[in-house]
Amino acid sequence: MSELVTPITLFVLALLIGVEVIGKVPATLHTPLMSGANSIHGIVIVGVIIVASQAHTPLAYVFIFLAAVLGTMNVVGGYVVTDRMLEMFKSAKTSRKSKSEKAETAADAAQTGQTAQGAK
Questions:
Q1: pLDDT tens-digit map of 11-53
Q2: Predicted TM-score (pTM) of this structure
Q3: Is residue 35 a contact partner of residue 82, using CB atoms and an 8 Å limit?
Q4: Dihedral angle sign, alpha carbons of residues 69, 71, 72, 74
Q5: Is 55 left (phi over 0), alpha (psi -120 to 50) or beta?
Q6: What residues have CB less than 8 Å from 34, skipping those under 6 apart?
């Protein structure tokens, strides 16, 4: 029983520190922070693979499966959030570019119409 006290204490402390740190992050920084956390979740999956090599009990297999699923969900979710964030910036540039292209096309059409009238 005393073997479990240290790991459980570390887990509880990590949980409390994590909640405290994440709770202090402003909403404007949450998305970039989430996209940057993909590497950390990748390390979690590598850790799951290493721990899986040492598992020999059904309970350990259940915990390994849960850790692998949750870690994978975090990695995929982080990439989805990053992709959505980048699409927001991409579409803003595209809409500006299309507006400027429309203005150039209208200016070209106006010049072409004037030269066509001048040639008549």
A1: 999 999 988 887 887 877 776 776 666 767 788 888 899 999 9
A2: 0.50
A3: yes
A4: positive
A5: beta
A6: 77, 78, 81, 82
For residue 78, which amino acid is it?
A: G
SS (H, E, C) the chain: CHHHHHHHHHHHHHHHHHHHHHHCCCHHHHHHHHHHCHHHHHHHHHHHHHHHCCCCCHHHHHHHHHHHHHHHHHHHHHHHHHHHHHHHHHHHHHHHHHHHHHHHHHHHHHHHHHHHHHHC
Query: What is the pLDDT averaged over residues 91-107?
Result: 62
